[in-house]
Each structure stands twice: as C-alpha cells, then as structure tokens.
Design brief:
Length: 340
Amino acid sequence: MEIELNPNWKKIAINMSGGADSSMLAYLIAKQIKENDLALIIQPITWERFYPSNSPKNWNLRYAANAIEKIKELLEFNPFEKQYIYKPVKKHKLEDWDEIIEDMKDIESIIFNHLNCDWFFYGTTCNPPLEEMKKIGFDIGRQEERDQNADKSGFKQTNPFCDINKKDLRDLYIKHDVLKSLFPITRSCEGSAEWTDDFTKDCGGCWWCYERWWAFGVPDEIKSVAKSKLQRSIEEVNRAKAALEKSIGSEEEAINNVKKSKKLLDSTIAKIATLKKKYEEYMEKHEENKIEYSKNVEKGLDYYNNAKKNKEISLKYVEKMNDYHNKKKHYLDWLGKFDD
Ligand SMILES: [Zn+2]
C-alpha cells in the first residue's frame, strides 16, 4: 500500500492512538519516507482520554509512545517529532462522535497553526463485513461511522485505511514482517482499568477485543481469562433464563401459550362479530333492550382485551427467551474458539 505524500510537504501529523491501525499507518509512512529519502517530518499526536472518570482510559499515551519507539527501532530511522499530547476541551463521559468532531475543530488549529503541519493523517480501518460479524455474533456495538468513510471535519486530512478492514490490516503486518514485533505492543481493547490489570491485558469481552481476535486470532495469554469470562456469561444467562421460567413457566409452556392465546384471540374476534350482528338484529325489534346490549358488548370487549394482553405477555416472554438463546449461542461460539 502506497500512501500519497505530497513532495511539497515539510511536516505531517499522524494521529497515533497506540492501536493496531494507527501504528501500522505510522510505520508505513515512516518506511516510505526512509525508502524515498524524503525530507518529511512526522508529528505524532495522541489524544488523552478522560472517560470514564473513575477509571480513565489513559493507555493511549503509553501505547502510542511505545509504538513510536518500536517503529524507530525496526526501521533504524527516526522521522518523528516529539509526541504531542492533545487534551480535549470536552472531557467526554462517553465516546460521543459529535463531541469528537467538535474536538477535531479545536485540534485543527493546533495541527496547522501551532504545530505547523501540512497535512493530517489518521488510520481507522472499516468495520468487518456485517454478515460476517452477525455470523459470529458481534454485530452490535460497532461504530457505524466506520462504514461511512466520510471526512466530517472538512480539514486537510486523509484516512488511508478507510477501505480496508482488520483482516486486510493483518495482511499488511505480515507483508511488512512486523506481525511479531510491532503488532503485539499495540492495543485495541476498550475494557476498563480494573478488567485489564491497568491496561496490560485484553478484557476479553468488548467489541474491540472481538474485532481484533476476528482478524488476528485469540492471543494465548488471554485464552484462559476470556474462557472463564465467557463461562461466567453463560452461567448468568442460564440463571436469568431459570428465573424467568420460575416466574412464568417453562419455555414450551410459553410457546404453547402464544399459540393458545392467538387461537383464543381469533375465536374471540369471531365471537364478538357474531354477537354484534345478533344484537343489532335484536335491537331493531326491541329498542328497550339497548342497555343490556351495550353491557354485553363491553363484556365481549373485556374478554378480547384480556386475550390480547395474554398474547402480548407470552410473545414478550418468547422474545426474551430467544434473546437468551442468541446470547448463549454467541458465548458458546466464542468458547469453541478457545478449544483448539
Ligand atoms: Zn476488550
């Protein structure tokens, strides 16, 4: 992959997060500068993160600094300026894309006015194909923005990885023979400090872990942690399922209830229709029975509403059960990946 570098540029900024994407991008650009003997300086920029406030995910600074050192060592070449730490104006509680865009506007003036860069690069791979993600049960929690590849800030920037996913990225690591050197010191997991021994291990449960494993395989050191975590999740689902069954009845009963209540509902609707017809005919002849008539219709409606409510309750129950089955399947699928 050839990154387009304008020969007139003197200095470019690269957003380095310590992740596998941005580390590979920095490596590729640094290598290109070395091989083409370009007079181009790289200004690495790392975003300091303050959320969640009780356990800030401040690993980016460390991991990005390590990646820079590793790239210098691997290439025996140093095109890097000192790492610039960007402290966002807004201390995000959550990763909010709109707020990030707002910060991007703030960082724009830093990059181009304060740091005097000619261009800004960031490397963010696109999501794995949705079908594939569904198949292995991690289609929920991905950033849909990553499918749009849109440049929302409007300033001079490029994401050379907008059309490649994590598996393509792994191919780049292999092609450049840095899979065993650069890749292991990068980090993708977004788990909290306490789940990851202060960001020294993968949490084994976040979307980013799954995406990384999907492309690069499950690392040995995480297998036992991930395995016990998945087993715990399965136990949790089993407990929730058992509690639900205890409160409402077995799953078979619930499915039967749905069928039964549907039948009841249909027959009630038919019954009401016949009743109505019958009473209308009757009413034509006996105007004095009007009150009796409306009472009966009300009764019929009550009956109907009850049947409808029962059906809804049963349907919800079946839905919940399906949810448990899907979750369990997802956990079991992943558990299966640890056995080989
Ligand atoms: Zn994780």
